[in-house]
Structure formats: C-alpha cells, structure tokens
Write a structure and sequence with these properties.
Helix 4 runs parallel beside helix 5, helix 10 packs across helix 11 and helix 11 crosses helix 12. The chain folds into two domains: about 90 residues; about 160 residues, Rossmann fold (3-Layer(aba) Sandwich). By secondary structure, the chain is α/β, with parallel strands linked by helices.
C-alpha cells in the first residue's frame, strides 16, 4: 500500500531486486572481482560475512554475471551435507545419476567435468552455501576433490560461503590440509554511514518514486539502529514506509525511525 502513497512503480526493499539495480559498494565490487577470478582460474575460494550482510545478494549478482556459454554453475545449500550427498548433489544438477559409493561418484564427477572442459569448453563452478554448518568429514573431502592429476590442477572452481564462524572453524589444526589449499579469502562487512545512505537511495531510485523521502537525521537513525547491516536496513526502511503511509506522512524523519525501532522491529535491532 505504501508504494502508491509514495508514487512508486516498484517495491524498493524487496529481496528480488535485479542485480543491475543494487548498490555495489567498493567492497562488494572487490568481492565480485575475486569470485570471478576464482571461477575463471578454477580456484578454491571462501566467502564469509555476518548474518544479513549480503552474502546471498552477492552470490546472486555473481551467478548472473557468469556467461552461460562458458560456465556451468552448481549451487548447493545443505547444512547436513555428507561427502556422498555432496557428489550426488553436483551430479544431479549435471543431469547424471550418481553411483552409490562416494569414490565412484567422485570419479563420475571428474569424468563429466573433463567432458565439459575438453568438449564443451565450459568450466564448472560449485558454490556451497551455509558452509559454516558442515561437519568435519565433508570439509575434509574438499581436498580429495581438488587433488586431481597428481595435484597439478583443480577439476572445478569451489566457493565455500558461510557466516564468520566458518573462518574460525578453518583455522583449527584439524583443517590445516584444507586451509592450505584455499586460494582466495573474501569477507563482507557492514556498511558505513555514507554507504548506508547510498544503499537506501539506490533502492528508492529503483522504486521510481521520490528520492527525498528520508531526512538526513532519518539516515543517521537507520545507520545507528542497523549497524550498517543491509537486511536490517531493508526492514527498517520498509516498516518506516508502511507506518508513514498509514499516518499520511510524506517525509520520514528520525522520530518515525525511532518509533519503528521501538515498536515494530522486535529483536532485529543490534546494540
């Protein structure tokens, strides 16, 4: 309902914004560059971020940037993934029925990747999300997957994505052999005050309405309340727009932000 009140043609803070309309900070551009490099050179990369800091958005942007005629992208997200189901999940997305034993399944995958690489001239990139929840056996399997042709090359580009505790897990001595194979580390941190305002303005531009809905003090309040976490910024802005439309207020100031923070955000606010 607030879209019509503010004369918007699109919903500004929805999760399905086209990647081309998203605000890309210098940090996001750097991460996207690193992921693209990892895909092109078939490297082992790790992307970490706190909850709500934009991992899914970056992955969606990255996935849409890869030319389909050059890459085959596999996305897996399963906290209970075992080595066998890891191979099965990849083979399923490649349209191949996986053999039961993981050793056989791994050889199936390597053979199919070889066909894709040599015949179709395509590179395979595997994104494994929620990797901070994986068990030791699955994490250790990655080094066996990447040990190919006497360790002279990697059969796939592998990107592990998870919350910040993934880094803490990988620093443990038990994962030394895996950690030594990681080629690139990428980290997303919360937005600063300047980027928070630019982020909101980019969403308003996409919506097609006015770009002067929020006052400077409102931007201050949103940044302070959200700690620069995009997911919380989205919720604060959306609820503020809804409340202002209900109250017939065309300008959102710090008082609206404070009201929404105290009455509608429940446990979402940090600090």
């Amino acid at each position: 309902m607030y879209e019509s009140f503010f004369e918007m043609s699109n919903t500004p803070f929805a999760r399905n914004l086209p990647p081309s309309d998203l605000f890309a900070t210098a940090q996001i551009q750097e991460v996207l560059g690193r992921l693209t490099y990892a895909a092109d050179h078939q490297l082992f990369a790790v992307l970490t971020a706190g909850s709500g800091c934009g991992k899914s958005t970056v992955l969606r942007t990255f996935a849409e940037s890869l030319p389909q005629e050059e890459y085959v992208l596999i996305y897996l997200s399963d906290s209970k993934l075992t080595p066998r189901w890891f191979y099965k999940g990849i083979l399923d997305q490649l349209g191949i029925e996986s053999r039961f034993y993981r050793g056989d399944a791994k050889r199936q995958l390597q053979k199919e990747v070889e066909v894709l690489r040599m015949v179709q001239k395509k590179k395979v990139v595997v994104i494994l999300d929620e990797a901070h929840l994986l068990e030791k056996e699955t994490i250790e399997e990655f080094r066996f997957l990447l040990n190919y042709r006497f360790d002279s090359m990697s059969p796939v580009g592998l990107i592990l994505v998870g919350q910040n505790e993934l880094l803490d897990k990988l620093k443990l001595q038990r994962y030394a052999a895996v950690r030594q194979r990681i080629d690139l580390f990428c980290t997303l941190t919360p937005l600063d005050r300047s980027d928070t305002e630019k982020y909101i303005q980019a969403h308003l531009k996409y919506a097609g309405g006015r770009n002067d809905i929020f006052t400077d003090r409102a931007f201050d309040g949103i940044y302070t309340s959200s700690c620069g976490i995009p997911r919380i910024i989205n919720r604060l802005c959306e609820k503020s727009l809804m409340y202002s439309a209900q109250q017939q207020k065309r300008l959102i100031d710090e008082h609206v932000i404070q009201y929404v923070q105290e009455h509608e955000m429940l446990g979402d606010i940090k600090g």
